[in-house]
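Translate structure to sequence.
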């Protein structure tokens, strides 16, 4: 997956004066319409967000001037963020295993729209990053750190992930292919306890939802419900940025597939024609083995992700350390995003792209 560059917030909002009172049923409905939903029931998924920053403090703001109802769970306290200038944001702080806001301390807080439904809101780690989300927010504290979990419609999550993984200018068929593999990953089932997914490379990058009418939103809508299956089960489809000319099987990267999808080493003509070379130096010691994803991740955690961006590299040593030379970005398993964009630019449809990178799978529609 591609490396996300955090967006830095320049200012830190002051704590507002919050009106205390029971949440009313007259909240405005959410006005930010990202996707045209069908009549079928929508699936909701939950994401732990911004956890990479280990936040002790978070700022919640209105999104698109929508009214937020905020409740301190386990108490009678409730807050409202409305359109008035002094009632548009709220600061939450972690104190041990309790969350404090506007002098109230409790184990968790929730924020939602009318009738507890989804709403657009902005969540900020002061001085570091902010994101717009569309859903329902739960805030908890664990050992002095806040955990923010957003429950959102699955299609909204798919659109937010595709927006993080591919540029808006990418060919439409590549965006459609990305939407299908993203949806497949989510539909295959949760990867955490207490919430289903995180917004890091362990699960899926998650940025702000795309605007209505954007290419990303159109690609998600055009593929709504489509997932990849292998032997009758939804495939938690893997993908990476640049494969270096050939994708890899699980065994190629030091993993055993068991009875699951093994992936296949497929030639990627676009990466072969448009190589991307990199070189880095790490300290002396045990150098990672090329192709071993576990060793690559371990080395990247020690020396930085930019030091070992891909799993296809050569290793040499000199008096100053270990030199790595490579031409791939990511683990190289599954769809190559760079290759998918190249295939789409050449007029190949998303179904053919998926069939190339995920042979022996079936494209099916699920609610």
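Result:
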């Amino acid at each position: 997956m591609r490396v996300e560059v955090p967006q830095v917030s320049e200012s830190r909002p002051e704590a507002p004066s919050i009106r205390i009172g029971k949440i009313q049923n007259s909240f405005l409905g959410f006005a930010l319409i990202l996707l045209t939903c069908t009549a079928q029931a929508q699936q909701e998924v939950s994401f732990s967000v911004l956890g990479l920053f280990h936040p002790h403090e978070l700022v919640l703001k209105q999104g698109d001037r929508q009214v937020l109802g905020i409740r301190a769970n386990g108490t009678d306290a409730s807050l409202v963020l409305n359109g008035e200038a002094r009632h548009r944001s709220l600061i939450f702080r972690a104190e041990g295993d309790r969350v404090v806001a506007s002098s109230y301390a409790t184990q968790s807080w929730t924020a939602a729209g009318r009738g507890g439904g989804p709403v657009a809101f902005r969540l900020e780690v002061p001085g570091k990053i902010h994101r717009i989300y569309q859903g329902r927010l739960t805030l908890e504290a664990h050992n002095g750190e806040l955990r923010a979990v957003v429950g959102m419609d699955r299609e909204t999550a798919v659109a937010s992930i595709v927006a993080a993984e591919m540029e808006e200018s990418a060919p439409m068929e590549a965006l459609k292919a990305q939407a299908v593999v993203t949806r497949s990953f989510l539909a295959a089932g949760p990867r955490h306890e207490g919430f289903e997914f995180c917004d890091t490379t362990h699960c899926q990058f998650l940025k702000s939802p795309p605007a209505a009418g954007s290419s990303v939103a159109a690609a998600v809508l055009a593929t709504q419900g489509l997932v990849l299956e292998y032997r009758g089960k939804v495939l938690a489809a893997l993908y990476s940025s640049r494969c270096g000319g050939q994708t890899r099987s699980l065994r190629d990267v030091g993993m055993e597939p068991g009875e699951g999808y093994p992936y296949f080493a497929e030639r990627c003509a676009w990466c072969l024609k448009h190589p991307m070379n990199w070189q880095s130096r790490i300290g002396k010691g045990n150098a990672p083995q090329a192709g071993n994803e576990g060793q690559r991740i371990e080395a990247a955690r020690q020396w930085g992700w930019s030091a070992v961006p891909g799993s296809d590299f050569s290793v040499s040593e000199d008096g100053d350390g270990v030199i790595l030379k490579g031409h791939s970005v990511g683990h190289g398993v599954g769809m190559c995003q760079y290759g998918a964009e190249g295939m789409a630019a050449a007029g190949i449809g998303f179904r053919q792209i998926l069939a190339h990178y995920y042979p022996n799978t079936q494209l099916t529609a699920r609610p």
